[in-house]
Amino acid sequence: MGRIGPGELILLLLIALVIFGPSKLPEIGKSMGSAINEFKSQMNKATKDDKDELKEKNI
After folding, report:
1. pLDDT score of 49
2. Distance of CA 20 to the CA centre of its chain
3. Is the Cα dihedral 29, 11, 17, 19 positive or negative?
4. Can you tell me the distance from the alpha carbon of 13 to that of 11, in angstroms, rounded to the nearest whole number?
5. How far is residue 31's CA from residue 39's CA, in Å, rounded to a whole number?
């Protein structure tokens, strides 16, 4: 199990095109990008908070 390869990505995009149609794909892509960015931001914040808390306890 690993990353998605180019073949799988093309297949997923074709399935999305059939299901949602070409007019909805940009909107869906933008929403997915925003959700991924928000998730990464929250994960980075949680990691920083955890590191800060550990640093305080070790002092």
Report:
1. 92
2. 20
3. negative
4. 5
5. 12
Degrees (nearest 5) of the Cα angle 6, 4, 40? Answer: 125
Cβ contact 35:26 at 8 Å = no
Would you mind telling me the total number of residues written for the chain in this entry? 59
Model pTM above 0.70: no
Say which residues have a Cβ less than 8 Å from residue 16's Cβ, sequence separation at least 6: 25, 28
pLDDT along the chain (59 residues), means of 10: 84 90 89 94 95 85
| Interatomic CA distance for residues 45 and 47, integer angstroms | 5
